[in-house]
Design brief:
- With about 475 residues, this protein is of the alpha+beta class.
- It has twelve helices and 21 strands.
- The protein folds into three domains: about 190 residues, Beta-Lactamase (2-Layer Sandwich), CATH 3.30.450; about 120 residues, PAS domain (Beta-Lactamase); about 110 residues, OB fold (Dihydrolipoamide Acetyltransferase, E2P).
- Helix content is about 30%, strand content about 25%.
- A seven-stranded antiparallel beta sheet has the order 13-12-16-15-14-18-17.
- A hairpin with an 8-residue loop joins strand 8 and strand 9.
- Helix 4 runs antiparallel to helix 8.
């Protein structure tokens, strides 16, 4: 809650300062003086990635063909209950409360009648879309892009027609995949948000996340039970992974391939093992999509594992708990079921995401949009990610190296160490240590030497053909 209070204080910039920056940014300049970093990044997405018209006056109609799981419906109902409990307080402050799904589609709205009438003119109402890609920077859409509560005030909205609004939103995210499920938001027209808005939103989201964590632990226990049952009658190496590809339990042989502790159950999603294998994560995501439409689906693929120079066949079988996908059982050395599409041309390859065309960094009061060849490597340092670039050392807009790795994973960048992601095209030399360890000499001005961890060495060798 203290973070929410600091966020609200930081958002109180002079209106003329923010509006002036908005005018410059809309004209194509990158001067962001007086604008909070999270808002500047949202503007960059709206202008350069989503190409939202800053003079849009109303939200578009939401698409209707949207799949929701039963678990998502439970989240919507819970958030509706939370909203109903404070609707009188919000109404008295002249505000409205909205709940949206993961696409930014407004599902329900409560609150002050006069404010709802103003909201209707902008299509701030059920069945309209407020995702950033549709309606620009706003409390609901920007919350979907953020892992923290957001406050968007006045001219911080990307679309000029919404500059009379103040909004605060928070996303509820799946505790396993980290993907957004829903957003809870408060909006006020030409008036300040209620003093308790931030605390209430955080509390409502936390209570809903607690429900999801409990459900995820139950799913983890179901995965372990399915693993134990399969192990008693299978003669192959086995592992159980959640829908994000994190390991819940693996036998001794599978643990070596995955680089995780053997026979150590981790039902709690907060302590599951990340094997650091992008191909496995992609396969898990693809399997989740297939199993959602066909519970009896079984698939197979080949993945490069740790300490192996050749890909290993893997069979993937979904495990369900009360109709909800708990995860998958992996059988190593087995090829059964549908063959997953190749990583370079089909589903599961990350092509639905699309490669990032620019890498965003910041320098003092300016946003720097870098072409990928300009970035030599990224380094994690404390809570920040720094980029070694042709324009010097810049702070990355991405808040975590894991997120940057995901964004750049299909564009010639590779994770080589827990602290480093490198541009493969910027490697000048490879040095071998006395015990076979690797280090990469980069072609930046300093010829920086980047270490390669033992678990990432096989992937580096494959990528460089050495």
């Amino acid at each position: 809650m203290a973070d929410v209070h600091r966020m609200e204080q930081a958002s109180r910039k002079p209106k003329s300062t923010v509006h002036g920056a908005w005018e410059r940014f809309v004209r194509g300049e990158d001067d962001i003086r007086g604008v909070r970093p999270e808002v500047a990044l949202s503007w960059q997405r709206c202008r350069d990635q989503y190409r939202v018209d800053p003079y849009l006056s109303e939200a578009p109609v939401a698409i209707t063909d949207v799949d929701h799981t039963l678990e998502h419906d439970v989240v919507f109902a819970e958030l509706g209950f939370r909203a109903a409990s404070v609707v009188d307080e919000v109404s008295n402050a002249g505000g409205v409360v909205t709940v949206t799904d993961a696409t930014g589609r407004v599902l329900a709205e409560w609150g002050d009648k006069a404010t709802r009438d103003y909201a209707a003119k902008a299509n701030l109402a059920p069945w309209f879309c407020w995702a950033e890609g549709a309606t620009g920077t706003n409390g609901m859409g920007t919350a979907l892009e953020s892992h923290s509560p957001v406050v968007i005030r006045g001219a911080e909205h990307w679309c000029q027609a919404f500059h009379d609004w103040n909004c605060a939103g928070v996303a509820v995210r799946d505790v396993v995949t980290k993907e957004p499920v829903a957003v809870l938001n408060i909006s006020c027209w030409r008036s300040e948000l209620p003093v308790s808005a931030g605390a209430w939103l955080s509390n409502a989201a936390s209570r809903t996340q607690f429900m999801l964590r409990r459900r995820a632990r139950d799913a983890g226990a179901e995965l372990i039970a399915a693993y134990n049952h399969a192990r008693s009658r299978a003669g192959v190496s086995l592992a159980a992974v959640d829908p994000a590809g994190r390991v819940v339990i693996a036998d001794d042989a599978a643990s070596v391939l995955l680089g995780v502790p053997g026979s150590t159950p981790a039902p709690d999603p907060a302590v599951r093992w990340n094997p650091g294998l992008p191909e496995l994560a992609r396969a898990a995501r693809y399997a989740a999509k297939q199993a959602a439409h066909n519970p009896s689906w079984v698939g197979s693929t080949q993945i490069f594992t740790h300490l192996a120079d050749e890909p290993t066949p893997v069979s993937i079988r979904p495990v369900f708990l009360s109709g909800h996908l708990a995860g998958n059982l992996l059988s190593f050395g087995v090829s059964e079921g549908e063959q997953l599409p190749r990583a370079d041309g089909g589903a599961g390859s990350g092509q639905d995401r699309g490669p990032a065309s620019r890498i965003v960094a910041t320098r003092e009061n300016r946003m720097v949009l870098l072409r990928q060849p300009e970035v030599c490597f990224a380094e994690s340092e404390g809570n920040d990610v720094w980029l070694s670039t042709d324009q010097g050392r810049l702070r990355a807009a991405s808040p975590a190296l894991d997120k940057l790795e995901k964004e750049l994973g299909d564009t010639g960048f590779l994770r080589v160490h827990r602290q480093y992601v490198v541009n493969l095209g910027r490697i000048r030399e490879v040095e071998r240590g006395f015990k076979g360890e690797l280090a990469l000499v980069m072609d930046d001005d300093a010829n920086t030497m980047v270490p390669v961890s033992r678990r990432n060495a096989p992937a580096v060798r494959r990528a460089l053909g050495i």
